[in-house]
Specification:
The longest helix is centred in the last third of the chain and has 18 residues. About 9% of the residues have low confidence. By secondary structure, this protein is α/β, with parallel strands linked by helices. The radius of gyration is 21 Å and the shape is globular. 38% of the residues lie in helices and 13% in strands.
Length: 353
């Protein structure tokens, strides 16, 4: 072991100022370099190729002046119009299972849209609601109204209050000429076989139904295409030794980390992982309840976005959630968390000498 003690997530209680929340509304590090031409459609899933075609037109159509000043039609067809609000959908909603590349496509859209980064915003639904909480509703409207594009990843439908809040916000932004793009994170109990019910989503966002064109993206989880099974967990000793030997690694026992997450707002989980090179966890065991499980899902998302490998002892990650959870209304989130943590566990294998 080295003489440097590992960090501890349980010792961190980050406070995130509002200006950082706005500045960080860009695609996460994992998606810095993604583009439409780096998305590899599955030849057996024509909806993936169609999604790329439509979104490329979407981006090209956002090259005109903001808020009706000679904008093109939303999907890029036709010539520039007079300063008149374009007819038809002015938002696109990407629907599909976990691991089909929705975030890759959403980030590619952000990169392809011909506007400087300050005029484009990208964040998850949770990050957007937290921005409203930090700035206030009117200030958030003012801050985002000058944008060309707002991308919302993992649009949530499990909190009616937040959904109505964001629906109202998006209505104001659409009126101001902001184009919208979102990916789905719906309650699978409403969907039937995990498929998206456009009517349910459009009803939830009330008057915004006319602004969205749903795009279905079929496919299997790319993180497991042709890859080996998830690595078996390591021993406590191996994880501890790796944590001490890896500069910038954290080391926590899993139950203590779960308890600590309850004390930190999920909007701060990104800051919780600042400057981490690896997360090492001992004594991984089943998550005890749904509230804890949903917090862990958010942490898994932030670690995956930042490409932080996760080395663990105890149970494998596919045993984190009970059968009841995996068959319940939030199962899509739990399967995504398992998929992402498994990918990060593979990334961490090289930490064990």
């Amino acid at each position: 072991m080295t003489g440097t003690a590992p960090l501890s997530l349980c010792d961190r209680e980050p406070h995130v100022p509002a200006d950082r929340l706005v500045a960080e509304m860009v695609p996460p590090p994992r998606f810095d370099s993604v583009r439409f031409d780096t998305y590899l459609p599955d030849p057996n899933q024509p909806s993936q190729t169609e999604a790329v075609r439509v979104l490329e037109g979407f981006a090209a159509g956002l090259g005109g002046a903001h808020a009706g000043g000679g904008r093109r039609g939303f999907l890029g067809f036709g010539r520039p119009k007079a300063p008149k609000t374009p007819a038809g959908p002015r938002g696109v909603y990407l629907d599909g299972g976990y691991g089909v590349g929705k975030t890759h496509l959403l980030a590619s859209l952000w990169h392809a849209t011909p506007a400087e980064p300050a005029l484009k915003a990208f964040g998850t639904f949770v990050e957007l609601t937290n921005l409203v909480g930090a700035l206030g509703f009117q200030k958030t409207v003012q801050t985002l109204s000058g944008h060309r594009l707002l991308c919302i990843d993992e649009f949530e439908l499990d909190d009616p209050g937040d959904t109505v809040l964001v629906s109202t916000l998006l209505g104001k932004l659409v009126d101001a000429g902001v184009a919208l793009a979102a990916t789905s994170n719906t309650l699978p109990g409403k969907l039937g076989e995990g498929r998206f019910a456009a009517a349910d989503f459009l009803r939830e966002i009330q008057g915004l139904s006319a602004h969205f064109r749903p795009l279905r993206i079929d496919g299997e989880d790319y993180r497991h295409r042709g890859l080996p099974e998830a690595p078996a967990p390591f021993t406590d000793e191996q994880v501890t030794r790796a944590a001490h030997a890896t500069q910038g690694a954290s080391l926590d026992d899993f139950p203590s980390l779960l308890a600590h997450l309850a004390k930190v707002h999920p909007s701060r989980y990104g800051a919780l992982t600042d400057d981490l090179r690896a997360v090492c966890l001992t004594d991984v065991r089943p998550v005890p309840d749904q509230s804890t499980a949903l917090r862990l899902v958010v942490l898994a998302d932030r670690l995956y976005d930042r490409e932080v490998p996760v080395l663990a002892s105890g149970l494998p990650f596919d045993e984190l959630f009970s059968e009841e959870m995996l068959n319940g209304g939030y199962r899509k989130k739990y399967f995504r968390a398992i998929s992402r943590l498994t990918a990060l566990a593979r990334d961490a294998k090289g930490l064990v000498a």
